[in-house]
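Hey, resending since the last one bounced:
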Amino acid sequence: MYEIEFTPEAVQDLRYLRKFEQNIVIDAIQTRLTHEPTVETKNRFRRSPPDIAAWELRIGIFRVFYDVDEFVRVVSVARIGDKPNNTVFFRGQKD
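The C-alpha cells again:
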C-alpha cells in the first residue's frame, strides 16, 4: 500500500474546487493510487514528457499529476487541475 502526500500547490488546487468536486477527486486518489499507482490503465498513464509530474490520473474532467517513489512507497500529488477541452487549468488559470 502506498502513502499519499500532497504538495502545497496540490493542496491549493484542491481547495479551489467545490466541496463535492473535492470529494470526487480525493475518493479517486484514495481508491486508484494507494495500490499499484504505476500500473498503466485507460485513465492512469505515464506522461511524456513529464513536465508537471511523471504520471497522470484522469477523473472525468479532472486531472491529478503525481510522482511515485517506489522505494519508500509514496505517491506525491504535484498538481490537480481540470481539463474541460484540450487545455489544463489550475485554479481557473491556464498554466
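The mean pLDDT is 95.

Sorry for the duplicate.
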